[in-house]
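pasting for ref
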Amino acid sequence: MLIKLYNENPNQKEIDQVVSTLKAGGLIIYPTDTVYAIGCDALNVKAIERICKLKGINPVKNNLSIICRDLSQVSEYARMNDEIFRLLKNNLPGPFTFILNTTSSLPKIYKNKKNVGVRIPDNNIIHEIVRNLGNPIMTTSIKNEYDDNEEIEYILDPELINEKYQKIADIVIDGGYGGTEGSTIVDCSGETPVIIRQGKGKLIL
């Protein structure tokens, strides 16, 4: 199902429909401030396993990522000292993924690596979805970074994304054309933050 939402003023009726789908264990594709992504309720393990299988993600070997509504919610699911809190506050909302140590609030599937990627995109559509859901959203890009033959239009154009993924995702959100550059990934799980992938955005230290 393709749903049109506007970043400036997402329609509450459609937001409620998306949230109901997430609460029922559904998968959605949505815009961020970088590329289109696929996600589910971050606390629904069966839905997470569906996405991992779909994307070929091994949660034992790869960090999973979540989208939170604000830093207060981040603190429920990840550990931050004062320095890391200031770093996130200086850069979020924005096109960054911060790898942090997990807390006991996340399901066991996140704890194989003991870390979780945290995002707060500068995009009002996904922000309103997370706010209304009350839980974070487990998130991963629909872009396959290892497939050079992937047609670029199928990660940019919501209608083509829907054409490709309509049998997989319960809802595809049309929030306008997407981007091609992923987030900058910053590993904050050690003593010093380290940029492990430079993407969109310039980190403010």
